[in-house]
Write a structure and sequence with these properties.
Layout (H helix, E strand, L loop, with lengths): L2 H11 L4 E6 L7 H4 L8 E3 L8 H11 L4 E7 H4 L5 H7 L5 E6 L4 H11 L20 H7 L4 E4 L2 H9 L6 E6 L2
Helix pairs in contact: 1-8
């Protein structure tokens, strides 16, 4: 799946009671093309590119607005900064949906290096920017914190997963190209 497909599908699943808390840094560049952001509570995002805000902020937004459905869109690299917030979500049954845009890399850093260097950077120079070998089993990590997690690798699975309105937290690990 592409990040465009994921955001388009998310946009189709949204209504006026959904709040997106976003930290999918690479994918966020296109979010406004696909999501119907109709009011000031529809979208919360980071301003300066620092990582670690979205997951705990999504829990706060869900507690502040219990009548809304909060979906945290976050990159797999960003998730690593505050993954322990999943325990809080499980402990207090905060019904946030965490949608991980999983490209198995710190892609924003790779893109930044290419821009800084003025072109492609050889993979051997991008040390520590891949989240492979071993691949992080994000659904298992979520389950370890008490949050149901599942890997989404097919388009039909994403639509079905977004339709699930759980009364507790859930994590959807969406594998993207």
């Amino acid at each position: 799946m592409t990040q465009e497909f994921v955001y388009r599908t998310l946009g189709e699943a949204m209504d006026d009671t959904v709040t997106i808390v976003d930290e999918a840094i690479t994918a966020a560049r296109i979010i406004d093309r696909y999501l119907p952001l109709r009011d000031e509570r529809a979208y919360l995002g980071i301003a300066a590119g620092s990582l670690g805000l979205a997951l705990p902020a999504s829990l706060g937004a869900q507690m502040a607005w219990p009548d809304r459905r909060v979906i945290c869109t976050i990159g797999d690299g960003s998730l690593m900064y505050t993954v322990q917030a999943l325990w809080t979500a499980a402990r207090y049954r905060i019904p946030v949906t965490v949608l991980v845009m999983d490209n198995r890399a710190y892609q924003v850093l790779k893109d930044g290096m290419a821009q800084y260097k003025g072109g492609p950077v050889p993979p051997e120079r991008l040390v520590g920017m891949d989240l492979e070998s071993p691949v992080v089993d994000i659904p298992a990590v979520a389950q370890g914190f008490g949050v149901p997690g599942r890997r989404i690798s097919r388009p039909d699975e994403l639509r079905d997963a977004l339709a699930d309105r759980s009364d507790g937290p859930q994590l959807l690990d969406v594998v993207i190209a």
